[in-house]
Every structure is written in structure tokens, then in C-alpha cells.
Design goal:
By secondary structure, this protein is an alpha/beta fold. Helix content is 49%, strand content 13%. Helix 1 links the parallel strand 1 and strand 2. Helix 7 packs across helix 9 and helix 8 packs across helix 9. The protein starts with a strand and ends in an 8-residue tail after the last helix.
């Protein structure tokens, strides 16, 4: 199945370079590009892409607002693409807000070409582009500017003790393999637990699970 992609970036050379790279892949079809967030939202509503590559900082409408509009569309708009944020910064406040809004991850603009291609495929498959190493950077950022501790979310009450344990380990940056070793479980069992956690908490992916664990009070930076 071909992955339909649009590219939203205010730099024409970036759009052209990414389009040429992705269009050369047999399983990826670049169906359009836009120079700002507003145009990107309009194009997405017309073209129905599977994945939107979205720059963070743009004129007219930035990538964060555009991502919000795509991922929480008005009544009557059914299509919701996966959104992959593009940034020139390793840690970017806008990216955290985008993850909270439901973006599937972020990618540095200077990442190797193979990483961009892999990222599109990963996100199109419904996974979060948030490797454990990136998760650990998220955690480090939370620790550097801790928010006031909140009461534990009542949504956590719907999880079993094992599911709660798995969620905590995800938030601490462990991979599925590391969680399996820590809990003496098969890796497939860990994947099953993660799927149930996401379903019960109505979370899109691993990225949102990490943020939820911190914002719900399950995990506190520095613990």
C-alpha cells in the first residue's frame, strides 16, 4: 500500500529536497506541499494524506496550530492524518505541545535521509516516532523544569497493577525489550500490555503515554 505524504514547510528548498527523496521510494507518494500551516491544513483536507510532515515555525499559521486543526478537526471532517513534526532543534517547546495535541513524533531536519524515510513509514504504520533515547531526552527536560505535582489521575484507576507498572517503565525511558527483562515477561506480552494501556487511557501512542504518565502524577521527575 502506498503512503500518501504532504510536506508543509516555509522553505522551498526543504520542501523540494524532501519531496525528491520521498518520491523516489516505491511505497511513498508525495501528493502535495504547502508553504505555511494554513495552506497545509487546506491541502490536507483536499488531498487526504496518510502522513503530514509539518515544520514547527512558519508564517501565517505555525505547525503547532496546524497540527491541532488536523488532529482535532471540526464536525463533519473525518480524515485525520498522522502528523510528524520537523524541527531544527533537538528539544523544542513547540514539539512537546504538538505531542500533547496528538502528533506522532518529531524529526530533526538535519537527520540522515534514511531516517526521514524510515520515520514516514513508522508513523504511517501507526507507531510513535519516539525511540527510547528520545524518550529519555523528554524525561530530562521534564526534570529540568518540573511542573507542580498533580493528584494522580482517576484514569489510572482503570489500569491493572501490571499495566500501571508497564506505563511507569515506558515513562522512565525503557524499551519494550528492557521492560520485558525488568518484569521477566516475553516481549510480546509487554506489547500486549502497552496496547491495553493505550486503549484504556485513549492515548494515541507511546509519545502521549510518556506525557500522560508525568502529567497524571504517576511519575515525578527526579524520582
Amino acid at each position: 500500500m502506498t503512503i500518501r505524504v504532504i510536506i508543509v514547510d516555509d522553505q522551498a528548498m526543504v520542501r523540494a529536497g524532501f519531496a525528491a527523496l520521498l518520491a523516489a521510494q516505491p511505497d511513498i507518494d508525495v501528493v502535495g506541499d504547502a508553504a505555511d500551516g494554513r495552506q497545509g491544513v487546506e491541502l490536507s483536507r483536499r488531498a487526504h494524506p496518510d502522513v503530514v510532515l509539518m515544520d514547527v515555525r512558519m508564517p501565517e499559521m505555525d505547525g503547532l496550530e496546524a497540527a491541532r486543526r488536523l488532529l482535532d478537526p471540526p464536525p463533519g471532517v473525518v480524515h485525520r492524518p498522522k502528523v510528524l513534526m520537523l524541527t531544527t532543534f533537538d528539544v523544542d517547546d513547540y514539539v512537546y505541545e504538538a505531542l500533547r495535541a496528538g502528533a506522532s513524533g518529531f524529526l530533526l531536519k538535519d537527520a540522515p535521509p534514511a531516517d526521514l524515510i524510515a520515520a514516514v513509514r513508522v508513523v504511517a504504520a501507526g507507531e510513535a516516532l519516539l525511540a527510547p533515547s528520545v524518550t529519555r531526552r523528554l524525561i530530562a527536560d521534564f526534570a529540568a523544569r518540573p511542573a507542580p505535582r498533580r493528584n494522580r489521575s482517576v484514569r489510572l484507576n482503570g489500569l491493572t497493577p501490571r499495566e500501571t507498572e508497564v506505563l511507569e517503565l515506558i515513562a522512565r525511558g525503557l524499551s519494550n525489550q528492557e521492560i520485558a527483562a525488568r518484569l521477566v515477561l516475553a516481549e510480546q506480552t509487554v506489547k500486549t500490555h502497552i496496547g491495553r494501556v493505550l486503549a484504556k487511557l485513549s492515548l494515541r501512542d507511546r509519545a502521549q503515554a510518556v506525557i500522560f504518565a508525568y502529567e497524571s502524577g504517576l511519575v515525578t521527575p527526579g524520582e
